[in-house]
Structure formats: C-alpha cells, structure tokens
Design a protein that fits this description.
This protein has 295 residues and is α/β, with parallel strands linked by helices. It has a 7-stranded parallel sheet with strand order 1-2-5-6-7-8-9. The protein has a two-stranded antiparallel ribbon with strand order 3-4. It is globular and about 55 Å long.
Amino acid sequence: MAGISTLDVDDQQSIATIHAALDAGINHFDTAFSYGYDGRSDRILRVALASRTEEVVIATKVGMHYDSSQQRILDASPNRLRFEVDEIRKRLNRDILELLYLHSPDAVTPIEASAEALASLVEQGIVRHVGVSNVNTEQATRFSRVIRPIVIQPPFNMLQQETVRSLLGICKDQACGIACYWPLMKGLLAGKMARDHQFAPQDRRLTYSIFQGENWQRAQDFLDTLRDISRELDIPIATIVIAWTLSQPGITTVLCGAKRPDQIRESASAMHAGINDDKFDRINQAIAAFQSQND
C-alpha cells in the first residue's frame, strides 16, 4: 500500500482492502515509519480506520526511513527512534501505540541502546508492548536482556524457513510470539504468475534470485504441487499457503500483504480452511524436494 515495493497501488483500493480485512475478521494491522516515502501507509490506515479504531491493534516499526533521495537509511539511534514514534502518533492520530518494533538494528547503534529507548517509551505510557524485527538469535538475545519482546518479526515462508527455525529457541525462552512476514513471498506463492510471466522492468521482485532463471523454474515446479492441491480442495493457493504457515511451530501471527480486497479475503479464509494433515504432508515433501535442488 506504500507504493515502494509494489507497483500500481491506489489509495482508495487500499482503504477498501483494509475494510475487507476487518469484515473477514482481521483485527491486527502492521505498518512502519518507512512504509511510504512520506508516511503513506500510516495515512491510509488513519483514514480507513477512522470510525473503527477501537476494533483494531496496530503494530508499527521504527529505525528505518528514506532520505530526500529516496534511499533507505537504517538508524536505530535513540533520538531517531523517539522522533519517529512522535511522527507515527501524529500520522495515525493515536496517543498510545499498542505494539512497537525495532524495525532493524543498524551498523552503529548497540542494540541494547535501541532497546533502552523503546523500554523508556513503555515506562512513559506511550507504548504498551515492544517487539523486534530482522534480528538473528544473538541480537534478539541482547535486546531481550534490556526488555522482553512480546513478539519477534522475521521473514518466513514455505521456501524460506531458516530465520524462524534459528529463532525458535529464544522465542520459547522468552515466551514471545513470532509474527512472520513474506508468507506469500512477494506474491510468488499465491500461484497466479505463470512460468512465462513477464515482469515490468521496474518491478523490484527482479532483484531477488527466486524470480529469475532456473530458480524461477524450480519455484514453478514446486507451485505445480500447490496447484494440484488447490484444484482438489477447490480453494485458492494463497489460502493453502497461509493455512500451512499458521500451522507451523512457533508462528503466532502471519502478516499478509494485500493491495486488493480479493487478495486479503483469500488470505483471511485460511483461518477457517480446515486442511488435513495429508495435504500438508504432500506440501512438506514438495518443500524438501525444492530445498534439495537448491542445496
């Protein structure tokens, strides 16, 4: 919805998508200071949720922004984090932020200093709970020595499981949840792009190896299994993928990107899909086959 990594977004369609999410039973929305060069994601959420703010929990993230040249900057320094929190509260028109993540550590600021800044915001009553995103086990451990994150946010999907697997130990130790992003792998695992799909030259997905050459073909081979299961169950591939993700150990929240109402409805229906273990076993076998080809 921010129009940075996704092409052809439209604010009115984004608002309709948020309303469709609410109607489908979703009450948790994930945004960030850097979602949009000028806060576009926050502004859309503020408009879409204007009359329904009490129904939702909004999570947001600080420590990443874009400069005047639209270059992404990681800055997790305490002063920067506090500045971004103040700006987010204005954008969203919310006095209190329910869940605030450190978006990512930077290369300069000790993660303990970032954690201390977030802990201070909790003490002031500006933030209720904190989380941390895009960290490895060592970083998560150091963060948790200052303040316990109630949730860690890493990338995770059928074909990219390594980060979550490495974090399961600390999440168990800290009794924190995992809110994973990229479950549909930038739309790949929705299964709607054919083998001969032509990406627009400016499509940022082309910067990922999975969308190119032999990796693309192997991904399509894997998707053929999902397509077969989709036909057998008569439900969309995206629904199957999200249902599988929800069933994985440690996963407590699946963050589903969408820019159209039909997309979020497909993802939300996974909450009630009722897919049996036999189908998941077939999927796991296909995942293992894909991974063996990429070792």
